[in-house]
UniProtKB/TrEMBL annotation:
Membrane transport protein MMPL domain mapped to chain residues: 68-375, 405-715
Record localization: Cell membrane
One protein family per Pfam: MMPL
Protein name, as recorded: MMPL family transporter
Length: 739
């Protein structure tokens, strides 16, 4: 017993003491969840998230300790024709009177006409903490709606940061609630189809949900070491459900398969632990390695996502090795109850000759080309995937701007009319300057000159009638100027205006001021800086993930060739996913089909995050499939027959796991924002390609073509394999003559 793998020893103990194992797991999950909530969340600050020059600009502005209140705007425009100035002024006065009576309004400014006289704009300053303004903006919107009802001949709208944030929170809240409500029943339905029994389908979902709950608590505790961001919990849910269901699915299917051969419940659990349990541990390490690569991005957002993902994967692996065997041992054959009649007949493992389960007919037919003509099949399939990956060479990276937010809300429709009438309220660059207090007057003069120079340039918005607005901190050390551009944030002219400001105008204006420190920030700057940051860090992250994954796979399978082909196949899968993203989202042909407006680029953070997630999740399937192939080799099969055995015996579980992932990721693609659509489509497409073309066509072609060379390793890595845990199955008859 002492020489058995740790996965078997853990499973054996849990199966022999099921109530203890289940109780310990419940206590563990409860302690993690309650302890995390008690410790509280440590969220990342703006300084933590500073990237590049734009991040430096944010740090300078923050050091000025400005008390910037939240500001809303009342925009008055005609419904048709030209604006009646008298009627508009009367409407503005009425709206101002109503708003002054609202609790939470600090002041209402004077209405300002647009340059062409087609609109009137009235600022409204809110009292209280600007961070919570979105939660308190509804009474102001009610007062604006009352003014609109009193002046139906005009369009009276409220627009500003708080109202836009409230509208987006409402939209995204509905989106995520719908996604969460859909993902659980969809996952359960797919598992019911895969197992044909309700309890067997419920066990993976139960383990996944408990793993997510424990990881949420642990990540809250970990946030005191690595600050958390608001996206961490969503990623924990996404990754936790994916790997939790996968690991349980692999384990439960193998245990049922062994019971179908006539083995006792305890023996079936042991064999599942030694085979699928071992594969779960290896694939878990692969996912953890991939996620750890995010730490090298030098970005608190990615570090937070890495910590959350690593924790939920580690918890899911632990659960699959401890509480899952206990549940299976306690349930016994009840795991196959209650049965769904038709689905049970289609999915239940059935014993064939020599006690081996009957293999499906579909997958041998799919495999036949790869086994009979591996070279031709490999060339064609890899050629198609490379063609799909080719567009990735033209990938452009940008942050989504205001123009990329959903236009389904009145707040965003009003924003479009606001920026059309008042260009300086749209896209702008933040010029942040820090200098000794005695240089404040010289800095103000330099910034005033800069504003006038920029206003004369067509890349920037015309000067406002009341001159440039320069904010100076109380200690006179920090000065801030907003330099507007009339173009959308993703427009190339906005990018050119940024470079002109950074490279020419600002350095020239600040020349000669002693002790001055300056930077340009804003939305356009943040997008450009972050894209540059990702391009610099992506090769480093990829190298780290590839190197460590190669070492883990080499050690696990005692084969350099298997490790190398694993990496190459996953790179091919990731490349195809990148190419598909570019094809779909950088062009306009899929806009109506998927309900988005193309931004002509991929969201900046997506390529790096997509790479590590796909590389980690793809390893789940690869480790599981190659483990079954290696099991066939150790059982005395020839290489070609082992490939057929490994893929046909694992195809059902891999397909089921992939369908679950694709379905959940596709739900995320239905969300309103462009970044969630790109993430959902990218993950769903990549998993689908990986589980079909890569695992069922490219992998068997490669391994059949290489033959015995698959298992080559240097002498120091070679060791005598343990005997196979099951006797070799009968060769698959329809494939024997294909080699």
């Amino acid at each position: 017993m002492g020489g058995r793998p740790v996965t078997v020893r853990l499973a054996r103990w849990s199966a022999e003491h099921p109530w203890r194992a289940i109780a310990l797991w419940v206590v563990f999950v409860a302690v993690c969840f309650v302890g995390g909530n008690a410790a509280g969340l440590n969220e990342a600050t703006q300084a933590d998230q500073a990237i590049g020059e734009s991040g430096h600009a944010d740090v300078i502005v923050t050091s000025g300790e400005f008390t910037d209140p939240a500001v809303e705007n009342i925009l008055i425009t005609p419904r048709t024709g030209t604006l009646d100035r008298a009627a508009a002024q009367a409407a503005a006065t009425d709206a101002a009177d109503r708003l002054r009576q609202v609790t939470g309004v600090a002041s209402v400014g004077e209405p300002v006409p647009s340059r062409d006289g087609a609109a009137l704009l009235m600022p409204v300053t809110m009292a209280g903490d600007p961070e919570t303004a979105a939660d308190r903006v509804q009474p102001l919107r009610d007062a604006t709606a009352a003014a609109q009802a009193a002046h139906p001949q005009l369009r009276i709208e409220q627009v500003g940061g708080p109202s836009i944030n409230q509208a987006l929170d409402d939209t995204l809240g509905r989106d995520f609630k719908r996604a969460e409500l859909l993902s659980l029943p969809v996952t359960l339905a797919i598992l019911i189809v895969a197992f044909g029994a309700l309890i067997a389908a419920g066990v993976p979902v139960l383990l996944a949900l408990s793993s997510v709950a424990a990881a949420m608590g642990l990540s809250t505790l970990a946030s005191h070491l690595v600050p958390a961001t608001d996206t961490t919990s969503s990623v924990i849910l996404l990754i936790g459900m994916a790997v939790g269901v996968d690991y349980s699915l692999f384990y439960v299917r193998r245990e049922r398969e062994e019971r179908a051969k006539g083995r006792s419940g305890l023996d079936a659990v042991e064999i599942a632990a030694e085979t699928s349990g071992h594969a779960v541990v290896v694939s878990g390490f692969a996912v953890i390695i991939s996620m750890a690569g995010l730490m090298l991005a030098d970005d608190v957002v990615f570090s937070s996502l890495a910590v959350g993902s690593i924790l939920v994967v580690a918890v899911a692996v632990t659960g699959s090795l401890t509480v899952l065997p206990a549940l299976l041992a306690k349930l016994g054959r009840w795991v196959d109850r209650p049965r769904v009649p038709l689905l049970w007949r289609l999915t239940a493992p059935r014993a064939g000759r020599h006690g081996q389960p009957v293999r499906p007919r579909f997958w041998p037919a799919v495999l036949r080309p790869a086994l009979r003509a591996p070279r031709a099949t490999l060339i064609v399939s890899v050629g198609l995937l490379l063609a799909l990956a080719a567009p990735a060479l033209g990938m452009k990276l940008k942050f989504p701007g205001m123009e990329d937010l959903p236009r389904t809300t009145p707040a965003m429709q009003a924003y479009d009319r606001l920026t059309a009438a008042f260009p300086s309220t749209g896209t702008s660059h933040t010029v942040a300057v820090r200098a000794p207090a005695d240089q404040a007057d010289q800095v103000r003069a330099a910034l005033t000159g800069l504003a006038h120079t920029a206003a004369a340039d067509p890349l920037f918005a015309p000067a406002e009638a009341d001159g440039p607005k320069i904010e100076v901190s109380a200690d006179r050390r920090v000065s801030v100027l907003e330099v507007a551009t009339p173009y959308a944030s993703r427009d190339d002219r906005s990018v050119r205006s940024l470079h002109e400001l950074r490279d020419d105008l600002l350095p020239a204006a600040m020349r000669g001021i002693p002790g001055v420190e300056y930077a340009v920030g804003g939305g356009v700057a943040a997008s450009e800086d972050y894209a540059r940051h990702i391009r610099e860090k992506l090769p480093l992250v990829m190298a780290f993930v590839l190197a460590l994954t190669f070492l883990v796979m080499t050690w696990t399978f005692r084969s350099v060739v298997v490790a190398l082909t694993s990496i190459l196949l996953n790179l091919l899968s990731a490349g195809a996913a990148y190419g598909l993203l570019v094809l779909v989202f950088q062009g306009e042909w899929a806009q109506d089909l998927l309900g988005f407006t193309s931004m002509g680029a991929i969201v900046s953070w997506l390529p790096l995050f997509l790479f590590v997630v796909l590389f980690g999740l793809s390893m789940d399937y690869h480790v599981f499939v190659v483990s079954r192939i290696r099991e066939g080799i150790r059982g005395g099969r020839s290489n070609a027959d082992a490939v057929a055995y490994g893929i046909t015996s694992s195809a059902g579980v891999v397909t089921s796991a992939a369908i679950v992932m694709v379905a959940v990721f596709a739900i995320f693609a239905s969300l309103s924002t462009i970044d969630m659509k790109q993430l959902g489509i990218g993950l769903a497409a990549a998993i689908l390609l990986d589980a079909t073309i890569i695992r069922a066509v490219v992998l068997p072609s490669v391994m059949t073509l290489l033959g015995e060379a698959n298992w080559w390793a240097p002498r120091f890595l070679r060791r005598r394999d343990r005997p196979a845990v099951t006797p070799p199955a009968e060769p698959t008859p329809e494939l024997v003559g294909a080699h």
